[in-house]
Design goal:
Number of helices: 3
Radius of gyration: 19 Å
Order of helices and strands: HHH
Low-confidence stretches: none
Distance between the termini: 21 Å
Largest sheet: none
Oligomer: single chain
Strand content: under 5%
Length: 108
């Protein structure tokens, strides 16, 4: 019984580490995307930047189909930022969980 409890605590602790790491990596990812905007203008730069932001635009568009031209444009901008960070945090959490699971399976 104690062994199962210890295993639960270790699994719970590593999940917290993965959550914190995914949030940090989301901030780094969004920071890297913002650095793309500082490159000299080119069509490829705009396509790459828009492609990396597209999932967040789709999330925000589901909640406010009018886009920035609705009654609360600042709320639209802030929800876009939250969606961008949240989307990359979920993506990084999935990647880290997959890698952790592969590591555990390789030990067996």
């Amino acid at each position: 019984m104690e062994r199962l409890g210890l295993r639960y605590r270790l699994t719970h602790g590593t999940t917290i580490v993965r959550v914190v790491a995914s949030i940090v990596m989301a901030f780094l990812s969004v920071g890297a995307i913002s650095l793309i905007e500082r490159l000299p203008y080119s069509h490829a730069r705009d396509v790459a930047s828009d492609a990396l932001k597209l999932p967040a635009y789709l999330i925000v568009g589901a909640f406010s189909p009018e886009g920035i031209h609705w009654s609360h444009p600042i709320l639209w901008v802030h929800s876009g930022n939250v969606a961008l960070y949240g989307m990359y945090a979920v993506l990084w959490f999935a990647i880290l969980s997959f890698l952790a699971r592969r590591r555990v399976d390789a030990r067996r």
